[in-house]
Amino acid sequence: MKKNDILKIKDLSVSYGPIKALKNISLEVNEGEIVVLIGANGAGKTSLLKAILGIQKAESGSILFLGNDITHKATDKIVNSGICLIPEGHVIFSSMTVLENLQLGACYNTHDMGKNLERVFEWFPVLRERSRQIGGTLSGGEQQMLAIGRGLMSNPKLVMVDEPSLGLAPKIVSEIFNILIELNKEGYTILLAEQNAKKALECGNRGYVMETGKVVLHGATQKLMNNSEVCQAYLGSSV
Amino acid sequence: MEVFIAQLLNGLSLGSIYVLLVTGFNLMVLVARIIQFAYPHIVVLSMYACWEVLQLTNNTFLALLSCIAASVILNVLTEPIFRRLANRDGVDINASFIISMGMALVITDIMSHSLNYGFPIAFPANWVEGNLLRFGLITLSKGQIYALVGGIIAVLLFFYLLYRTKQGRLFRAMAENRYAARLVGIPIIKTSILSYIIAGLLGGFIAILFSMLLGSASPNLGEFVALKVIAVSIVAGLGNLKGGLVCGLLLGIAEAMAMGYISGSWSNAISFIMMLMIVLIKPQGLFGTKI
């Protein structure tokens, strides 16, 4: 496969006041890949995703998306250029209907809305059934599907998913991961941040291991799975 | 019975003004995350603008236009001030309350020092007079009919905008979850400014209806109404638009009834005592806060 990087981050640093959340992170995502970010709580995974989307301002370093510098752009411009973030904790608009939630996902791409909506409903038939229902009345797993569906409505070139397994039953988690793999086969490039290292490494192509704001290891997921440090710290078993 | 019907009509027309004021106020509470105490003051200042233009040009159309323009411009001018108070969830809502009280004082002072030498202004008689309906004690003036019909139309238009259009969907999304709204790519600042513009348009319309209903305005009118707008929105539940509709009308009716059956000078105290009791029983407001 031709290497074609969609996202290229160089020496990115982000601070919350005096606390440095990210220290000189460099990372690449190529077209058609699933790249996983693993690390413990507070390692900086969410901060990194937020920095890419411009929600946390970068202190130094640069973020290139499809060759354009997006480091200091406003969030709505970045979303419009084709990145979406599916945040942790199934963040949806819970007093609005499922359909309205999905329509909000396409607040730029209105001319393709009908087509995108049809595609999302094909991915998640349950959302079609519940399209008139209020978002807050869905179950946790369905809300996560709604959050993913809403992200896909913007026709993104890069889908960032933050902790999709958070607070969901194991069976639902497997379902969500299967959906991510299917989406990847369909052509979506995915950047996945996940604490559940085993599951994440199983479905990804390449991985980055983060610790206290730094990338400590990166490489193909097969290699990471066989790495003794990763095994001890995140997978809980020896090779 | 005649007194009751007469006061009910008075109450409904005054109540529709309260409803519109609370609606504009709540829109900014929800979308821009501010408590704009000075919103009624801006409406009253727009009435002054309307009156000044009427004095200068004697052109009703121009006067009405300048009323709406003044309201929109004044309202949008406050936006940069509030934006500087921004924090993660929008604007620091307590700070915005204090700042807007300061704005309110400044506006009241401008009206009482520099406009019409501080004297109350009076709109031409043909804006107000002409009882269209007279039946014993029951009269319905032109201004009352305008306030009622105009109020209903404005509320319907507003709710159509909010619940049936794409822009309204963006407003509601921002009101509900600012973080998620950013994630889906809603331009936060642009949408917020738009809410000031819509509230300003509504404010201009309120100023016109209010001029026709009262026929006059004085520098302390803003203060007088602002307290009630805040009280209604707290009783209904801060940011609760539907609650604002009900409670605004109720306040208008309650005041009119107090005026008709007890004494005009007690109407304020009675409405505020009712509010204190409601807050004592339901601190979240009758319909629940939305922020």
Give a structural overview.
The complex is a heterodimer of chains A (239) and B (291). Chain A is of the alpha/beta class. In chain A, 37% of the residues lie in helices and 27% in strands. Chain A contains 10 helices and 10 strands. Chain A is globular. Chain B is mainly alpha-helical and 291 residues long. Chain B is globular and about 60 Å long. Chain B has a single domain (2-281), classed as ABC transporter involved in vitamin B12 uptake, BtuC (Orthogonal Bundle), CATH 1.10.3470. The interface between A and B is medium-sized, with 26 and 17 residues.
List keywords for this structure.
heterodimer, A: 239 residues, alpha/beta, Rossmann fold, six-stranded mixed β-sheet, four-stranded antiparallel β-sheet, 10 strands, 37% helix, B: 291 residues, mainly alpha, ABC transporter involved in vitamin B12 uptake, BtuC, two-stranded antiparallel sheet, two-stranded antiparallel ribbon, 6 strands
How would you summarize what this structure contains?
The complex is a heterodimer of chains A (239) and B (291). Chain A is an alpha/beta fold.
Look at the structure and give the mean pLDDT of chain B: 92
* Record field, number of beta strands of chain A: 10
Strand residue percentage of chain B: 5-15%
Assign an overall shape of chain B. globular
Can you lay out the helices and strands and say which pair or pack?
The complex is a heterodimer of chains A (239) and B (291).
Chain A: E1 5-16, E2 19-30, E3 34-38, H1 45-52, E4 60-65, E5 68-69, H2 75-81, E6 83-86, H3 98-105, H4 113-123, H5 125-129, H6 140-152, E7 158-162, H7 170-185, E8 189-194, H8 197-203, E9 206-211, E10 214-220, H9 221-225, H10 228-235
Parallel strand pairs in A: 3-8, 3-9, 6-7, 7-8
Antiparallel strand pairs in A: 1-2, 1-4, 4-5, 9-10
Helix pairs in contact in A: 3-6
Chain B: H1 2-31, H2 39-57, H3 60-77, H4 79-83, E1 86-87, E2 90-91, H5 93-113, E3 121-122, H6 125-128, E4 131-135, E5 138-141, H7 142-164, H8 166-176, H9 178-183, H10 188-214, E6 216-217, H11 221-236, H12 241-261, H13 267-281
Antiparallel strand pairs in B: 1-2, 3-6, 4-5
Helix pairs in contact in B: 1-7, 1-10, 1-11, 1-12, 2-3, 2-5, 2-10, 2-11, 3-10, 7-8, 7-10, 8-10, 11-12, 11-13, 12-13
